[in-house]
Automatic annotation (TrEMBL):
Similarity-based family: Belongs to the DnaA family.
Magnesium keyword on record: no
Function: Plays an essential role in the initiation and regulation of chromosomal replication. ATP-DnaA binds to the origin of replication (oriC) to initiate formation of the DNA replication initiation complex once per cell cycle. Binds the DnaA box (a 9 base pair repeat at the origin) and separates the double-stranded (ds)DNA. Forms a right-handed helical filament on oriC DNA; dsDNA binds to the exterior of the filament while single-stranded (ss)DNA is stabiized in the filament's interior.
Protein name as it appears in the record: Chromosomal replication initiator protein DnaA
Keyword match Nucleotide-binding: yes
Localization per record: Cytoplasm
Residue span of region Domain IV, binds dsDNA: 370-496
Chain segments carrying region Domain III, AAA+ region: 153-369
Major location category of this protein: cytoplasm
Domain commentary: Domain I is involved in oligomerization and binding regulators, domain II is flexibile and of varying length in different bacteria, domain III forms the AAA+ region, while domain IV binds dsDNA.
Family matches, as InterPro entries: AAA+_ATPase (IPR003593), Chromosome_initiator_DnaA (IPR001957), Chromosome_initiator_DnaA-like (IPR020591), Chromosome_initiator_DnaA_CS (IPR018312), DnaA_C (IPR013159), DnaA_dom (IPR013317), DnaA_N_dom (IPR024633), DnaA_N_sf (IPR038454)
Length: 496
């Protein structure tokens, strides 16, 4: 049989496998195999590494045998050879491999125990371990190894183009872009932190995409600290630590989300520390995210904490009103949804500290409208979201008028002929700072919103800034008739 015939037969076998296995499994595990020899008795395949060989033998051999029969109508024995040079592997992990060979028979029992005791040392491991004992899951497994240019760990929707920049995330965005342009140059590691649903994951993926656009041969892997943990436990269980290390140390850009889950997991932290060092020493880019800064991840080994802090830290805060509206506008544009601006303003002014929830609210309103064949209106949004939006955030001063921070900001901005961006922005000149303080004062007086919530709506400002503005304007209202009449006039506009 010629090489071309061999290749064509193998391709037929592969194509036929797609009827019984998912594309992802075929792509990750079976397509990397190379046909070496086909006789009437056997098919010899080459695996790129020992891990793939073991994995395919363990889980996919019956599928291969069946598919071979369907194509060749012969009962072939499948033999898989590890194509990776043993010499090279030994240079990298001599101890691991020797140990593996020596302990081959006992490994399974002992490593299973080891994984179990690891798991028992921390409750958080319990579901993780259960998961680890399962056959490969398409959702949790990442391919081994990572191929150059492989984008499969990245969400195609999370790009720089779909990310809205505002005061709350401009620093993190600028840093992310700089790193994407020049990976492993100035900011390594890059550590992003901030509350839930504020765009950290989105930015991480955007970096990955951009790097691959510029350098299509780079190996980029996005993962979470939980996945890292699962894979490590799996590798201990299966005696494949060498393959685990090879995977994680043989990439150009490692993006690890939610590293706060490393807290309290000593053994995982140790492995992560070595992975981190290996990549850093090889001048590879590391990007991390967490819901809190490194110092607040506890307990976290000091050496790991100091490494996390050794690069660039960037916090991502809750977006201000303008950014929230812009995010909704972008989403409607991208998803081709027809939503009036006042509906977006209503949603954005009520859901202010989680973009995921903000997008969810928009989706619910649009879905409900389309399901019922209603037009998307403010009344509909109020109705659909009535259980999501707590009454605390708004005060109904008149029977049919809802007064909220957004309305106050819009009215004040209009009165002083400013843009919302100015009112909520960073500029401090008196013709902007004074209206801003009036708006903060009115927000405090006319709604039940808390000081931090008001501050968050004014470009992510601190509650003490709101307190100061409120006290100052309150005093002026009492002492200065001109200021008092301006405020009364604005108040009337708001309630009218
Ligand atoms: N500035 C933004 N522009 C566009 N979309 C955004 C922005 N910020 C967040 N999102 C969207 O909000 C959703 C949640 O963002 P993401 O998952 O990145 O948050 P996160 O900070 O990683 O949260 P978590 O800590 O829960 O993982 C995503 O759909 C993301 O695309």
């Amino acid at each position: 049989m010629t090489d071309i015939q061999l290749q064509a037969t193998w391709e037929e076998i592969l194509k036929n496998l797609e009827n019984s296995l998912s594309t992802r499994v075929c792509n990750n595990w079976l397509k990397p195999l190379k046909p070496i020899k086909l006789t009437t008795e056997m098919l010899e395949l080459g695996a790129p590494n020992v891990f793939t060989k073991n994995w395919v033998e363990k889980y996919y051999l019956p599928f291969l045998t069946d598919s071979c029969y369907e194509i060749t109508k012969a009962h072939l024995e499948i033999s898989i050879t590890n194509l990776e040079s043993t010499k090279d592997t030994e240079t990298i992990y001599p101890d691991e491999l020797k140990q593996q060979q020596l302990k081959k028979r006992n490994t399974r029992v002992r490593t299973k125990k080891k994984a179990t005791s690891l798991a028992q040392s921390n409750d958080l491991f319990q579901p993780t371990l259960t998961e680890a004992m399962q056959p490969p899951s398409e959702m949790t497994e990442t391919p081994l190894p990572i191929n150059p240019g492989d984008k499969s760990s990245l969400n195609p929707k999370y790009t720089f183009e779909s990310f809205v920049i505002g005061n709350s995330n401009s620093f993190a965005h600028a840093a992310a872009l700089a790193i994407a342009e020049n990976p492993a140059k100035d900011y390594n590691p890059f550590f992003m932190y901030g509350g839930v649903g504020l765009g950290k994951t989105h930015l991480m993926h955007a970096i990955g995409h951009k790097i691959l656009q510029k350098h299509p041969q780079k190996r980029v892997l996005y993962t979470t600290s939980e996945k890292f943990t699962n894979e490590l436990i799996n590798s201990i269980k299966d005696g494949t630590s060498a393959a685990f290390r090879q995977k994680y140390r043989n990439i150009d850009v490692l993006l690890v989300d939610d590293v706060q889950f490393l807290a309290n997991k000593e053994r995982i932290q140790e492995e992560f520390f070595h992975t981190f060092n290996a990549l850093k020493d090889a001048n590879k880019q590391i990007i991390l995210s967490s819901d809190r800064p490194p110092k607040e991840i506890k307990p976290l080994e000091d050496r790991l904490c100091s490494r996390f802090e050794g690069g660039l830290l960037a916090d991502v805060q809750a977006p201000d009103l303008e950014t929230r509206i812009a995010i909704l506008k972008k989403k409607t544009l991208m998803d081709n949804l027809d939503v009036p601006l006042d509906v977006m303003t209503y949603i954005a002014s009520h859901i202010d500290n989680n973009v995921r929830e903000l997008e969810g609210a928009l989706t619910r309103v649009v879905a409900y409208a389309s399901f019922k064949h209603y037009p998307v209106t403010n009344e509909l949004a109020v109705d659909v979201l009535k259980n999501t939006i707590t009454k605390q955030e708004t005060t109904v001063k008149q029977v049919d008028k809802v007064i909220n921070i957004a309305l106050i900001q819009e009215t004040v901005a209009k009165y002083f002929k400013l843009t919302l961006a100015d009112l909520n922005g960073k500029k401090r000149n008196r013709n902007i700072a004074f209206p801003r303080q009036i708006a903060m004062y009115l927000a405090r007086e006319m709604t039940d919103a808390s000081l931090p919530r008001i501050g968050g709506n004014f470009g992510g400002r601190d509650h003490t800034t709101v307190m100061h503005a409120h006290d100052k304007i309150k005093k002026q209202y009492q002492d200065n008739p001109k200021t008092a009449s301006v405020i009364d006039e604005i108040r009337k506009l708001i309630t009218s």
